[in-house]
Amino acid sequence: LDVNGIADIQQSLRIYDLIESLKHDRITLAFIAEFSRGKTELINAMLFGQFKRRILPSDVGRTTMCPTELMHDPNDEPYIRLLPIETRRRAETIASLKRKPVEWIKMRLDPSSETELVQALRALVQTKTVTKNEALELGLYDHAADEATTVLLNDPDKIEIPAWRHALINYPHPLLSSGLVVLDTPGLNALGGEPGLTMSMIQR
After folding, report:
1. How many other β-carbons are positioned within 10 Å of the β-carbon of residue 71?
2. pTM of the model
3. 78 C-beta neighbours (distance < 10 Å), count
4. Are 149 and 49 in contact (CB under 8 A)?
5. Of the candidates 51, 29, 155, 46, the residue with the CA atom closest to the CA atom of residue 110
């Protein structure tokens, strides 16, 4: 249109906006199933196969405890950002908290070091011990039915819950660099406690 002198300024602007939005467009691939069904194992094979070992924790009994997003932002260094579970006490969605970096714990990642990657990503399975009342306040315990995201301890008043509410991993993998976002979930029971994930992200 430009070459033939019939370009319309309004049309050109719209086309330019479309091209720019496509450049930044992302597709989210969510792995959703019950607890311990091999979701993290599949992601390990897909994104970390070159290491010939598990990078994301997926051993029996020690698997992802919080929803985890893997993506690549070339404008930032590789990192893992962790959102403390205590933020569940506030009426703020994960989407709104993503815009508040001060709420997250951030650790740098070294993509070239297999050992450092494994060590840093062990944070995904961290838990903390709280009273049942505290777990109830956080929406992580139901007196009628114990959830897959909680572990009852020998102490009748104590319970083990995930230390983190959500994790973001910025990792330079060709698939992620091309605009793919991978969402690893702890299981359907855990997702029920995060309406923002089930109603918005997974729907998209």
Report:
1. 18
2. 0.78
3. 18
4. no
5. 51
